[in-house]
Amino acid sequence: MTRLLSILLLLLILPACRPPDPIAGAAAVAVSPAGGRMAAAGQLAGDWKAGAVQFDAAINHAIDMLDSARNGTVMLQTGQVAKSTDATLFAGAVLDAMQMCDAKLPKDDNSVLMWYRVGNLAFRAAEEAHTANRLPEAMSLVLAGPTHWQNEGYWSEHPNHDGLASIILAKSGRRAEAIARLQNHAILHGLAEEVYEMLQRGQ
User: How far from 109 is each of 66, 100, 115, 116, CA to CA, in Å?
Assistant: First the structure.
């Protein structure tokens, strides 16, 4: 009986002894009125430099939050449905943290997939903010993070992101820039082509 009690006590104590998850901690800072996106970004950047977090895991958490907010599904990590604003705040924090660490991030052929994921996070976060009519936030997200992901190969494979970027630019009073960036592409297709034609017609 004494041995069983000791085991039960140990099981109760062990979770309390685990170090806090730095990614969850940064997410909490991002959505806190006393914290915010930039504060969380600084925390994530510091943790990455210290080897306490990996950006791949932070991107995963941000995507999980965006999926939860969009679909109304409960997150396994928190047991709750993420709010739209919380999801985009944390996604922005991850992108800003990577910008802070840009000089030390890999940019070789082995990192192509990581950079595609960075671009996808910027797209998903901007799409969420844009759908919720938070245009200034969408503008701050759609091209966020280090610019290394913004290349012809990425835009060619992600016409929805390409088109959304120009939609948001045009709505933000930057129509000439919205048109020019699409004109610079060798090939346009899908939403990017539709948006370009729409902007050229003055719509």
Answer: 28, 21, 10, 12
